């Protein structure tokens, strides 16, 4: 079964750093884009950026460029989303998803900054 | 950046009725790169339609996609109780890939 499994919920304070993860299984992780999507409470989906694990080609939305870092380790089929200094406005659900049309989604990681 | 505008914001319909959801792009999008998603409360989104017309695996045939250029449509031919949800379109032709703001289909 193809699946993406994300790390668990996080509660952090403003100014702290954080890395959340997304582990793929059941397919060749290197050969599919992995994207990150933010959903703030009660709001819509926002595309943050994508990475191609095979060569680490990474693209960011202008809204998130410089605010987060997307990376991947293809040897362990895992993608990461990292913040160096969290803000209260980073409180949201974060999803990873596979591909262009996102055909497989992780279960989401809730990040609370307070 | 390609802006996707969905309309209406909310669609109030009864089970058995037909739902027509619109997604308009600020510039032309290749049909190959237009997708639709369904999201229910507390759940991750689910891919319904990819490449504007093609149903994803396991999606019932009451869901259909159409359109080209800047105007795309998701049609649900007869609403089932489980179809009441929020629907998003997305383009992945040009970076940054973008989502529409969503259409909520609610029970009338």
Fold blueprint:
The complex is a heterodimer of chains A (114) and B (108).
Chain A lengths: L2 E4 L3 E3 L5 E8 L8 E6 L5 E8 L4 E4 L8 E5 L4 E6 L8 E7 L5 E2 L3 E5 L1
Parallel strand pairs in A: 2-11
Antiparallel strand pairs in A: 1-3, 3-8, 4-5, 4-9, 5-6, 7-8, 9-10, 9-11
Chain B lengths: L3 E4 L2 E4 L5 E11 L4 E6 L6 E5 L3 E2 L7 E14 L9 E6 L6 E2 L3 E5 L1
Parallel strand pairs in B: 2-10
Antiparallel strand pairs in B: 1-3, 3-7, 4-5, 4-8, 5-6, 8-9, 8-10
Write out key terms for the chains shown.
heterodimer, A: 114 residues, mainly beta, 11 strands, 51% strand, globular, B: 108 residues, 7-stranded mixed sheet, 3-stranded antiparallel sheet, 10 strands, 55% strand
- Could you tell me the strand content of chain B as a percent range? over 45%
**Class by alpha and beta content of chain A:** mainly beta
Uncertain parts of chain B: none
How much strand of chain A? over 45%
**Oligomeric state of the chains present here:** heterodimer
Order of helices and strands of chain A: EEEEEEEEEEE
What spatial form of chain A do the alpha-carbon principal axes imply? globular
Global shape of chain B: globular
Supply Rg of chain A. Answer: 13 Å
Model description:
The complex is a heterodimer of chains A (114) and B (108). Chain A is built from no helices and eleven strands. Chain A is 0% helix and 51% strand. In chain A, β5 and β6 (57-60) form a beta hairpin. With 114 residues, chain A is an all-beta fold. With 108 residues, chain B is mainly beta. In chain B, 0% of the residues lie in helices and 55% in strands. In chain B, the strands form two sheets. In chain B, strands 2, 4, 5, 6, 8, 9 and 10 form a seven-stranded mixed sheet that branches. A three-stranded antiparallel sheet of chain B has the order 1-3-7, with no helix packed on it. The radius of gyration of chain B is 13 Å and the shape is globular. The interface between A and B is medium-sized, with 23 and 25 residues.
